[in-house]
Amino acid sequence: KQRNGHEPEFLQAVEEVAETVIPYIIQNDIYYGKNILLRMVEPERVISFRVCWVDDKGEIQVNRGYRIQMNSAIGPYKGGLRFHPTVNMSILKFLAFEQVFKNSLTTLPMGGGKGGSDFDPKGKSDNEIMRFCHAFMSELFRHIGHNTDVPAGDIGVGAREIGFLFGMYKKISNGFTGVLTGKGMSWGGSLIRPEATGYGTVYFAQRMLETKGDSFKGKGVVVSGSGNVAQYAAEKVIQLGGKVLTLSDSSGYIYDEKGIDEEKLRYVMELKNEKRGRISEYLETYPHAKFIKGKTPWEVKCDIALPCATQNELNKDDANTLLNNGCICVSEGANMPSTKEAITMFHKAKILFAPGKASNAGGVATSGLEMTQNSLRFNWTREEVDLKLKDIMSNIHDACIEYGKDEDGYIDYVKGANIAGFVKVADAMLAQGIV
Ligand code: NDP
């Protein structure tokens, strides 16, 4: 706390892990007294750099770029890049820390990292995005590599940005390698990678519901966000027979009582991905829907909630409203969207609750599959990748049960994910000595 007191999101993420992992360490001699968690919370390397670029008016702009290389005990650093004005050291360290546990849970050989910039892509032209991405990569390239550190997308970094970043990396390194994931299909990408985080979040929820003999069929589902994760979570919910009631962005949420079906979702995808519009524009085509400005969608009555926008978007009051409205399952698509108090309420009510590091691990898992395909110089089919994704989500679910089942039979997925993620990384760190 003394060292990181000015980093609230990082402390929040560490506290959540510490509360469940420290009792486990105390009970297990092989970990006790080795300061293993103390070592895990200190990033192996933190890189901060200047990014200068020229906007369309010819003015020079300056942003700050970062890469946090958190832990490489079980593989090269792996984790996304976020471009958003709120990006700072605390946010990236919390994301990098979560990533270490998440990547361990996937069972694939990936360490944890995260990076990005306080650059705001909103309202920028394609040319400005390209110039920024090229400038960002002209420094980042010296710190990454397909065996060292393999970044991917996150908020504000989608297929377009990965393309520009990859182009610059390839040019200055003079090599075509799998240094980034989320690439286009014709230049090294993997099928299902765009869908993977959203699909995985729903696959995980499906496994949780099965423990109660339940399913998505006929359920009312509230989804937040309308970006990559939200879009594909919604798509999978629709395919499984659920009714998607909401989507949102930072300006508010839309509520479609009749349900957002496949056709309406296609419209949202075009609106957000091609036209880069706002979610409120949904009403221009579907005027029966409502737009609730400046609010999050948790006040809408639902059976299942999928927070897929950003950290701390679901607080204690929201949790209370969801529970009073009869919500039985929350599966996090975003990273740390529920506050600590909200999670405590879900646990007290004994509903199904999956933390992002378990339920949204499908994205990075499929990135791991992209890395494997790049190394093999081979592409798996859509069905093959989807099957592997389903398998991985199912295995993560089972690992959570192994370490998270309480005496009364309730599955504490937070405890399960933290301990299962910890064990693999801790074992590797112990085997490698103090490095
Ligand atoms: P996108 O940039 O594609 O979409 C983000 C969505 O969240 C947008 O609808 C955005 O609205 C909204 N949002 C962002 N910041 C805020 C905010 N401060 N308040 C309210 N709404 C906000 O990002 P992704 O879908 O990729 O990421 C969403 C979440 O999922 C993040 O937490 C990310 O870390 C996590 N995640 C993503 C993975 C991936 O594979 N992409 C993998 C694992 C986790 P607006 O357009 O108005 O900003």
From TrEMBL:
Complexes and interactors: Homohexamer.
Any GO molecular function: glutamate dehydrogenase (NADP+) activity
Keywords: NAD, Oxidoreductase
InterPro entries linked to this entry: Aminoacid_DH-like_N_sf, Glu/Leu/Phe/Val/Trp_DH, Glu/Leu/Phe/Val/Trp_DH_C, Glu/Leu/Phe/Val/Trp_DH_dimer, Glu/Leu/Phe/Val_DH_AS, Glu_DH, Glu_Leu_Phe_Val_DH, NAD(P)-bd_dom_sf
Record-linked PANTHER family: NADP-SPECIFIC GLUTAMATE DEHYDROGENASE 1-RELATED (PTHR43571)
Species in which this protein is naturally found: Flavivirga spongiicola
PROSITE patterns: GLFV_DEHYDROGENASE
SUPFAM superfamilies (UniProt xref): Aminoacid dehydrogenase-like, N-terminal domain, NAD(P)-binding Rossmann-fold domains
Protein name (Swiss-Prot/TrEMBL): Glutamate dehydrogenase
Protein family membership: Belongs to the Glu/Leu/Phe/Val dehydrogenases family.
Domain Glutamate/phenylalanine/leucine/valine/L-tryptophan dehydrogenase C-terminal: 190-433
KW Chaperone (keyword) present: no
